[in-house]
Amino acid sequence: MPKQSLAILAVIFAFAAACALEAPNAGAEILPGGSPVSKTGGVVKGFGISPQGFPLDYSHFGDFLEEVGAFPNGGVMFNGAWRNDVEGGTDAGVPPETAVAIVRDAADYGYTPVVVFGWRSDDGDLHLSLPANISDDWTNQEAQVAFESMLVEFAGAYHPPYIFLGNESDAYYMAQPEDYSRWVEFYNRAYASVKAVSPETLIGPIFQFERLSGQGALNNWNIPYWGALEAHDLARIDILGITLYPWLAYRAPDEIPDDYLAPLLERIGELPLAITETG
Q1: How far apart are CA 193 and CA 129, in angstroms?
Q2: Where do the structural domains in the chain lie, given as residue ranges?
Q3: How many Å apart are CA 125 and CA 226, to the nearest integer?
Q4: Can you tell me the distance from the alpha carbon of 137 to that of 128, in angstroms, rounded to the nearest whole number?
Q5: Nearest-CA neighbor of 14 among 276, 265, 210?
Q6: How many other C-beta atoms are found inside a 10 Å radius of the C-beta of residue 269?
Q7: Do residues 197 and 154 touch, judged by C-beta distance below 8 A?
Q8: Distance (Å, whole) CA 216 – CA 250
């Protein structure tokens, strides 16, 4: 489902394909305005979970964390479903073990943990159906309760510096605008619940920039879907995540204009922006 993988304004991420984030390593401070500052002052070089032998072999997981932690500003991102059993949902409400490990071990290895909890796969399948309620959309109140409970338990126990909710959710806005509004309602409630137990955690959604802005002409993405962003209250977004693939719009790097991100920056003002995937 999820993919593993500048700081514009206040924050910069760098993940799996050379992305970047100016974020706190273990023990870094959060300024009163909400912007994270790395103790070393550098850009975090982030990586999706990819130990030697991945995805079949996790025996070198510790070696991977040690290697990333050896960077001056290393980061590790968990980008996965909000539950382990995405098919049956029998463990819904329990924090995924890998997300827990990424945050729990960050101080020991010296990297910045970033967590993305997704609820839809790249092919459009949703992960909201539960044994107690098979509705696979945001009308599923049992799923909403379990998702929120998991977030509160996770954030209250581990106080992660970053939590992103949903990955490239603009695709769902295109497909199901009415249910997308229910997702935003859930996001707002989950945001408040996480802040209540971990006020220092920075929270935000993730959008696919080329699709959102209608600049993915080479992928036939010519119509902007700013409504996916505008449905959110920016006061409930601490940091906005985007996946960024300029090759969907331009055939060569030197063709990319300097103001490529301007349509988004004009809409979010000084809100910190994070690139969670690029290539």
Answers
A1: 22
A2: 29-278
A3: 23
A4: 6
A5: 276
A6: 8
A7: no
A8: 8
- pLDDT value of position 43: 67
Could you give the percent of the chain with pLDDT greater than 90?
76
What does the alpha-carbon distance between residue 116 and residue 207 come to, in Å, rounded to a whole number? 12
Question: Can you tell me which residue has the tokens 């010519």?
Answer: 222
First to last CA, the chain: 18
Q: Residue 274 to residues 195, 197, 247: CA-CA distances in angstroms?
A: 20, 23, 19
Question: CATH code for 29-278?
Answer: 3.20.20.80
Confirm if 40 and 24 have CB atoms less than 8 A apart.
no
Residue keyed to tokens 């500003």: 73
* pLDDT score, position 102: 95
Q: How many CA atoms lie within 13 A of 83 on its CB side?
A: 25
Q: Where are the beta strands (DSSP E) in 133-183?
A: 162-165
CB atoms within 10 A of CB 180: 20
E strand spans, 140-193: 162-165
At residue 76, the 3 state secondary structure works out as strand
Mean pLDDT by 10 residues, the chain (279 residues): 32 34 38 37 76 90 93 91 90 96 95 96 92 96 98 98 97 97 98 98 97 94 97 97 95 93 96 90
Closest CA to 115 of 147, 149, 88, 155: 155
- What pLDDT is recorded for position 42? 56
What whole-number distance in Å separates Cα of residue 101 and Cα of residue 118? 17
pTM of the model: 0.86
Q: How far apart are CA 229 and CA 217, in angstroms?
A: 20
Are 71 and 45 within 8 A, CB to CB? yes
